[in-house]
Design goal:
alpha/beta; Arc Repressor Mutant, subunit A; D-Maltodextrin-Binding Protein, domain 2; 3 domains; 5-stranded mixed sheet; 12 strands; 21% strand; LysR_HTH_N; DNA-binding transcription factor activity
């Protein structure tokens, strides 16, 4: 590129002033005087040939061109910070807090963490396991299961997979079709996971069963306990495939030839605002997205 970029300190002054809507606040953050911030922003505007801010009596307001320029500048600083911390670390260990569903932590995250620590030994994790996200708890990274519609966060998909019906491996079932097996199971109670009401409906619809109601024997709020209830003989449940797989050699069976596609998936969430997202949180997010993608590809190749 032949275009000469403006000096880094001018861009930093602009980004901070835009984020904080104040030359004084930007000056305090960057350890400069308000006059210095104002001078650097003015120099940037003269270099670009456009006014980036409207100077108001009670603060600053971005112009249209100033607002359009900001995302690219902010992204550049974020990427520079992430790359620097990722390659060189800090002069001390840093911690980030990650909240994750229990079974995702057990089946996906725990086996991968040695690889993460080998790549980023300066980043330490505090891992909170939760069934449902508690928005009153501040975390750096939030792994959630749902529809992905959390507009206040930056959201990236991690894992989407079918759900399967599982039973205790000594359950007596007819030798016929999947439909006949489902009908036989409906004669007894089933284990139901709260918040996943549509899974049994989709299973029945898939096998053209419209005139039978699902009788729930026990309800629970998480997949792990649902699997344990099924192993205890309280009826079948419908859970995500990777959640069930570790138990398929420990008393659990998947009697149907196919699973059902569900609308929900696992997502990783970080704050949208740059001042609330640390480079370490972004490093962890990008690493986990890549690792989940790689594991999905490996699984697809094995089944192909």
């Amino acid at each position: 590129m032949s275009f000469a970029l403006p000096p880094l300190q001018w861009l930093r002054a602009y980004e901070a002033a835009a984020r904080l809507s104040s030359f004084s606040a930007a000056a305090a953050e960057l350890n400069l005087t308000p006059a210095a911030i104002s001078h650097q922003v003015r120099a940037l505007e003269q270099r670009l040939g456009f006014q980036l801010f409207e100077r108001l009596a009670r603060g600053l307001q971005l112009t249209d061109i100033g607002r359009a320029y900001l995302p690219s500048v902010r992204k550049a600083f974020d990427e520079l910070a992430v790359t620097t911390v990722g390659l060189f670390g800090r002069d001390h260990d840093t911690h980030i807090t990650v909240r994750t569903p229990v079974l995702f932590a057990n089946n996906w995250l725990a086996p991968l963490l040695p690889k993460f620590y080998a790549a980023f030994p300066h980043i330490k994790l505090r891992i909170l396991t939760a069934i449902w996200a508690d928005t009153s708890t501040n975390v750096d990274v939030d792994i959630r299961f749902g529809d992905g519609q959390w507009s206040e966060f930056e959201v990236h998909p991690l894992l989407r997979e079918p759900s399967i019906l599982v039973v205790r491996d000594d359950t007596k079932l007819p030798k016929g079709s999947d439909r006949e097996k489902v009908l036989a199971l409906l004669d007894h109670g089933v284990v139901h996971i709260m918040g996943c009401e549509d899974r049994w409906t989709k299973l029945l619809r898939k096998h053209d069963i419209s005139d039978r109601k699902v009788r729930v024997s026990t309800m629970t709020d998480n997949s792990l306990f649902a699997i344990r209830l099924t192993l205890a003989g309280l009826g079948p449940c419908v859970v995500q495939r990777s959640y069930a797989e570790p138990f398929l050699k420990e008393g659990l069976a998947a009697p149907l030839t196919e699973g059902i596609e569900i609308d929900e998936a696992h997502y990783i969430l970080t704050a949208r605002s740059a001042e609330r997202t640390t480079p370490e949180a972004i490093i962890f997010r990008e690493w986990l997205v890549a690792e989940c993608r790689a594991r999905r590809n490996e699984a697809s190749e094995r089944t192909a």
